[in-house]
Amino acid sequence: MNLQDPRLVLAAIVLLFAGPLVVAVTLHSERWGFRPDQLRNEGHLVQPPVPIDLVRQPPQPDPSGRWAVLYPLPSECATACWQDLAALGRLHRALGRRQQEVEIVLLDAAGLPAGERTELARGFGRFTLATTASGDMATALDRVTPPGVAIAAGAPTRGGAFIIDPGGNIILSYAPGFDPGHIKKDLQRLLH
User: Fold this and answer.
1) How many Å apart are CA 113 and CA 67, to the nearest integer?
2) What is the SS3 assignment for 104?
3) Which of 23, 81, 91, 162 is the most buried (most CB within 10 A)?
């Protein structure tokens, strides 16, 4: 093999520059399904984002500029509901210095009994209780519920959780039985 052969030198140069390009195009193509972890959400991306108009109770100062984690409360808060609320409380504390940039909003679309409202205020006073301005939350939740999640007919809320951007749009949804670590991971990406 003669290294002075111009054809070999030309082939080596083409391989040197074209090889990485071929590898990059191959990895980027949808055919291989390669997605680095830092580019993948844990929640289901809502496309297009669904606007939601929340009425906070009691009225709050302008919440614009803050991210929110929305948790639709069921008509009666059973054990799973209280576990989710405790997990959301831990999630909020785990955000550390970023806590001020994220609020936890409990959506009371079904109208909680007064006793449960009092218990919520006592145990989760840092959470914000809200309803929707339009009152048509079921339609909005139908549009953002992750694929493959079965919804009971006539259920006023859908379970799970949602991330709302500072503009008031639902951008990510999480199925019932969500892992709070997934929400934290997505929030940390969004806040940086």
Assistant:
1) 28
2) strand
3) 162
Calpha distance 158→144 (Å, rounded): 10
- Residue 110 · residue 73 · CB < 8 Å: yes
pLDDT band at 116 (very low <50, low <70, confident <90, very high): confident
Q: How far apart are CA 4 and CA 166, in angstroms?
A: 63
* CA neighbor of 185 nearest in space, from 45, 73, 37: 37
CA 115, 121, 123, 127 dihedral sign is: positive
pLDDT of residue 139: 60
Sign for the pseudo-dihedral over CA of 129, 134, 137, 141: negative
Cα dihedral across residues 157, 43, 96, 99: positive or negative: negative
- Between the two ends of the chain, the Cα-to-Cα distance in Å is 54
pLDDT at 40: 72
